[in-house]
């Protein structure tokens, strides 16, 4: 079917409304066409702005259903051209844009309505019907204007049927005529208004502006046009005793007025024309004003929490700074970041995360004074301005109230969660005299709290800025380290304590910093995680490990297994599996020599995706270990779903072993889980003989830690392997041939 040729049957009445449907999505255009077909319309379609304008040039349309995003000419530009060329048609805008700028732009250009995709079938049909009905009413009004002079009776009937209030005033501003629409909109009968001054229905605050409208004496183009006023409404119908009460409910109207004069040469007129009153039309635009107010409100408020957004917060902070400067007072700016929110969002989903934000915002707001401002910056970050402080202790007290309020448990439909917050505080004027300075310094103070363990507050100090600059310098240096070859892999052997032989090793990244010397992974990898450097670092590590494995195998270590720590960010990247397979193929490494170590938290980020990725690794021949087992947040159910081969007992549990005959239930539980599931077991951080004997006695035979070996460079590790090879060779010789 050709959508561009569906103007109805040849004998279709010419009076049928003609609609132009404009959308560059063929599927949506076809769906829209099918929805409006057979409903008494003549339809024409266009898939681009140029095609739409060509149709508008060729014929008249009653209504245009217009998509804003077109491949050539934007919807707003098309509306501007419609207005400039004087096309007599109404426009309904349909758009998938979520921002308010598109809606405001469409309404300002005279759009009848704005529908956000996806819209409902009923909403579209009702809007089209209302638009055409409004158009028919407008046509009727035009026809009415042409017949007023020929029939007073018809004039009365048509004026009273108008959707607008039509009125006349005498030269003193008293009503001499109003149509029935005044009663329908305002609740005042014609008898109640005739003879009364116009100020009777105008809101007190709008009386000055009303004077220029209701006393209009100009004519033609100079007359008043579209002046907005608020009118009082009579919403009560009076009590039984006939008394009438007035509720000052307000209605905003748009007024058009023109002065009425006795024509030149009238009886008794000697000089010019005499003014004898005003004729005007008042249109109800209450719904439009409410819509505009709603759009304006949403532009400055966060939809989820109903708090001021970043834009409104900066505006209020700017006013507070001006007042503090004038009154020589202090104010505080706080930057709040919710701790552990991301964990809740990942485990329970975004819906529960949104509920948590709403509840947290309500608690924070309950801790503030009337003149304070709480705003949502985005994500799980909030900002607060506390004007007119007596001293810093006021801000400290509020911060402590925030922490106390947030530490109470949150109930998210049966899920009880606990969070805390990190709060940074900057004080005007000592910590900054501008909006940006105060916000930046409060943010820096907040990150200082994060670095010190979270769940607290801190005032900004200039030394923190130095630390922030050091972080920036560290980021730059780390990027250079990748380019300059300053990174190196170290290896910590894993020992089978039964035989005393090395059975594997864990690869650990080190940074040969040109100024600070050798840095361990813990000194720079957390920073790399925060600053998007884990992906290039992981790419480097994968290549370096495979390259070092070649040296392993040459030294007789081909039977050993190499464990590498996998960043969650690296696993989430779609091409991780292909990079692993490519590196193993490129260096000729057997996948059986590789064991990928993941943390429990990987299991809760995106379980199904993680399972798919790890299963692909297992099919390749790579084994999987859970690192730091028992310190994360995953459930034991994940051990059944994930392809796990090894459990590593975290060193924090191993350090608790001080008595060989003691009872350490967490250690025993982990060993029992591994034995029950048939998994290999490795204990990390073994530093004493007591720890080693306890672990071995209870079923853990593979260990790594300072008791056996510290992490060493590749050359040193190769020396260890060579020594083990010589020892094995000597043990294999007959006693007479040993050195």
Automatic annotation (TrEMBL):
Segments forming domain Response regulatory: 18-132
Domain GGDEF intervals: 329-462
One example GO MF annotation: catalytic activity
Classification via SUPFAM superfamilies: CheY-like (SSF52172), EAL domain-like (SSF141868), Nucleotide cyclase (SSF55073), PYP-like sensor domain (PAS domain) (SSF55785)
Modification 4-aspartylphosphate, positions: 67
Record-annotated PAS domain positions: 151-222
Stretches assigned to the EAL domain: 471-725
Organism superkingdom: Bacteria
GO biological process: phosphorelay signal transduction system; regulation of DNA-templated transcription
Sections of the chain in a coiled coil: none
Cited InterPro entries: Biofilm_reg_signaling, CheY-like_superfamily, EAL_dom, EAL_sf, GGDEF_dom, Nucleotide_cyclase, PAS, PAS-like_dom_sf
Keywords attached to this entry: Phosphoprotein
PANTHER family: BIOFILM ARCHITECTURE MAINTENANCE PROTEIN MBAA, DIGUANYLATE CYCLASE DGCP
The name this protein goes by in its record: EAL domain-containing protein
Native source species: Pseudoduganella lutea
């Amino acid at each position: 079917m050709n959508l561009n040729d569906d103007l109805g049957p040849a004998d279709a009445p010419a009076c049928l409304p003609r609609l132009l449907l404009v959308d560059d999505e063929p599927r949506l255009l076809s769906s829209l066409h099918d929805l409006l077909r057979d409903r008494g319309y003549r339809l024409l379609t266009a898939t681009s702005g140029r095609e739409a304008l060509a149709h508008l040039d060729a014929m008249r349309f009653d209504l245009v259903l217009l998509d804003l995003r077109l491949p050539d000419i934007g919807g707003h530009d098309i509306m501007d051209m419609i207005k400039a060329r004087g096309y007599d048609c109404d426009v309904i805008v349909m758009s998938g844009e979520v921002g308010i700028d598109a809606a405001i732009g469409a309404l300002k250009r005279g759009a009848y309505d704005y529908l956000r995709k996806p819209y409902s079938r009923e909403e579209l049909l009702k809007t089209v019907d209302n638009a055409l009905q409004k158009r028919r009413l407008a046509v009727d009004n035009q026809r009415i204007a042409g017949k007023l002079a020929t029939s007073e009776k018809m004039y009365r009937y048509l004026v009273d049927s108008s959707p607008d209030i039509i009125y006349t005033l005498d030269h003193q501003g008293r009503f001499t005529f109003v149509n029935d629409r005044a009663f329908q909109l305002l609740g005042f009968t014609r008898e109640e208004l005739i003879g009364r001054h116009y100020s009777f229905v105008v809101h007190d605050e709008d009386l000055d502006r009303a004077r220029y409208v209701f006393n209009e004496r100009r004519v033609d183009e100079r007359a008043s046009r579209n002046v907005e006023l608020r009118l009082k409404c009579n919403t009560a119908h009076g009590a039984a005793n006939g008394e009438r009460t007035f509720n000052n409910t307000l209605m905003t109207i748009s007024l058009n007025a023109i002065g009425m004069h006795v024509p030149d040469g009238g009886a008794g007129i000697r000089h010019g024309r005499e003014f004898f009153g005003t004729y005007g039309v008042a249109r109800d635009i209450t719904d439009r004003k409410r819509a505009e107010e709603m759009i304006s409100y949403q532009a400055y408020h966060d939809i989820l929490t109903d708090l001021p957004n970043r834009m409104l917060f900066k505006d209020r902070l700017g006013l507070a700074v001006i007042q503090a400067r004038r009154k020589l007072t202090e104010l505080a700016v706080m930057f709040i970041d919710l701790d552990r929110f991301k964990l809740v969002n990942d485990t329970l989903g975004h819906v529960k995360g949104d509920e948590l934000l709403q509840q947290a915002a309500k608690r924070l707001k309950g801790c503030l004074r009337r003149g304070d401002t709480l705003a949502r910056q985005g994500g799980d970050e909030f900002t607060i301005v506390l004007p007119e402080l007596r001293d810093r202790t006021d801000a400290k007290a509020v911060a402590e109230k925030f922490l106390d309020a947030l530490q109470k448990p949150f109930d998210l439909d049966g899920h009880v969660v606990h969070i805390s917050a990190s709060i940074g505080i900057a004080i005007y004027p000592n910590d900054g005299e501008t909006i940006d300075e105060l916000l930046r310094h409060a943010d820096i103070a907040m990150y200082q709290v994060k670095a010190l363990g979270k769940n607290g507050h801190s005032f900004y100090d200039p030394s923190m800025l130095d630390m922030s600059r050091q972080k920036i310098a560290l980021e730059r240096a780390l990027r250079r380290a990748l380019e300059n070859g300053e990174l190196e892999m170290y290896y910590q052997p894993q020992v089978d304590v039964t035989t005393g032989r090395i059975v594997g090793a864990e690869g650990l990244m080190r940074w040969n910093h040109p100024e600070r010397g050798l840095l361990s992974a813990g000194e720079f990898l957390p920073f790399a995680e925060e600053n998007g450097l884990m992906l290039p670092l992981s790419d480097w590590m994968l290549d370096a490990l495979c390259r070092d494995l070649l040296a392993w195998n040459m030294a007789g270590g081909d039977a050993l297994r190499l464990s590498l720590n996998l960043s969650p960010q690296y696993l989430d990247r779609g091409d991780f599996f292909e990079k692993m397979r490519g590196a193993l193929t490129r260096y000729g490494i057997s996948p059986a020599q590789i064991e990928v170590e993941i943390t429990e938290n990987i299991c809760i980020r995106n379980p199904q995706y993680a399972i798919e990725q790890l299963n692909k690794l297992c099919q390749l021949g790579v084994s999987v270990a859970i690192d730091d087992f028992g310190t994360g947040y995953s459930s034991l159910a994940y051990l059944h779903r994930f392809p796990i081969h090894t459990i590593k007992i975290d060193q924090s549990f191993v350090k608790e072993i001080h008595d060989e005959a003691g009872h350490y239930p967490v250690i025993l539980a982990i060993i029992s889980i591994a034995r029950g599931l048939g998994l290999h077991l490795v204990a990390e951080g073994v530093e004493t003989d007591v720890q080693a004997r306890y672990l071995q006695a209870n079923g853990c035979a593979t260990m790594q830690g300072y008791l056996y070996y510290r992490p060493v460079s590749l050359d040193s590790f190769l020396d260890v392997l060579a020594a083990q090879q010589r020892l094995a060779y000597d043990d294999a010789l007959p006693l007479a041939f040993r050195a």
